[in-house]
Amino acid sequence: MNWKFVVDIESHHDHIIINGIRYNNAYEIKNRIENRFADHVDINGPVSCKKLLDVINDQLHIDPYITQDDSQPPYTVLSSLIKEVTWHDFYSIVELVVPLIDDYFKSKEKELDLKKQQFKEELEFSDDIWEIDPYQYDDDIAEFRIEVVTQNAEAYKDKVNALFARKGVVWQFDETDHLKKVFPAELSERTKLIEEKLTGRFDPALYSYRKAQSFLTLSKYDPENAIKEVITVLESAGKTIFPDARTFGGVIIELKKTKQYDSKMLDLIQKFWDFTNEEPAVRHGHPILPDLLLTEAELCFHIGGALLFLLLTNHGGVFH
Question: Between the CA of residue 174 and those of 160, 180, 303, what are the distances in Å?
Answer without folding.
Answer: 12, 6, 24
